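General statements about sequence and structure are easier to judge against a single worked case. For one protein, we set the task of working out the structure tokens from the amino acid sequence alone. The sequence in question and its structure tokens are set out directly beneath this paragraph.
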Amino acid sequence: MAPLNRIGLNAKKAKSLARKLNELLANYQVFYLNTRGFHWNIKGKEFFELHVKFEELYNDSVLKIDEIAERVLTLGYTPLHTYTDYLKLSKIKEAKNVSNGVEAVQEILNAYAVLLPLERELLDLSGDSNDEGTNSLMSDYIREQEKLIWMYSAYLEQ
């Protein structure tokens, strides 16, 4: 029988989960900074609508970042916590000086194209590891983001 970690999960599988969660954490940190920048810098006739939407996104990201980091700790590992590590690991790239609403929304959709596959991979890994905690988080994130993709895509169809 494989050794178990302190919460009763296979230690080797928990290590793989923590590694993948840190990858998700890195991507969320860059996503957070991007959406914060969109919120600050947005201009144009949709300013009021998008300013609020981007604030919702970065506030939600802060919560998810904390949940992901705490899940890594729960699994018995250390969450990444430097921008050097985040930028090295993140597939989401920094979006600098974006003030156009269409461009910002497209950047958000591009980010979800990175986040969703990572979350689905974690959903599979956590299911295989009998890790209901991670599984539940990923299931919730996926459901929320699929709806947001629909909504932000509808915005671009103007």
Notes: The chain has five helices and no strands. The helical segments are 11-41, 47-74, 83-89, 101-128, 132-156. The mean pLDDT is 97. Residues 77 and 156 are 40 Å apart (CA to CA).
